[in-house]
Amino acid sequence: MTNKLPCLTYQGSKRTIARSIVDKMHSMFPEKKVFVDLFGGGGAITSAALEYKQDTLFECFKFDKVIYNEINKLVYTLYSAFIRGEIDPADVNMYVTRKMFYEIKEDESYNTLEKAIILFVWSFCGNMNVYIRNDSCETDEYLREIEYRIETHRSSLIKKHTIDTYKLDTFNKDYRCIPIPNNAIVYCDIPYSGTSDYGDVGDSKKITRFSHNSDKDSQICINISEQLDCKVGCRDKHAFTNCEHKGRHYDKVFVFDYDKFYEWALGQDCPVFVSEYNMPDKFECVGEWQRATFGNGTISAENAPIEKLYWNGKGLGVVERVGS
Ligand SMILES: C[S@@+](CC[C@H](N)C(=O)[O-])C[C@H]1O[C@@H](n2cnc3c(N)ncnc32)[C@H](O)[C@@H]1O
Question: Would you say 186 and 36 are in contact if contact means Cβ atoms under 8 Å apart?
Answer without folding.
Answer: yes
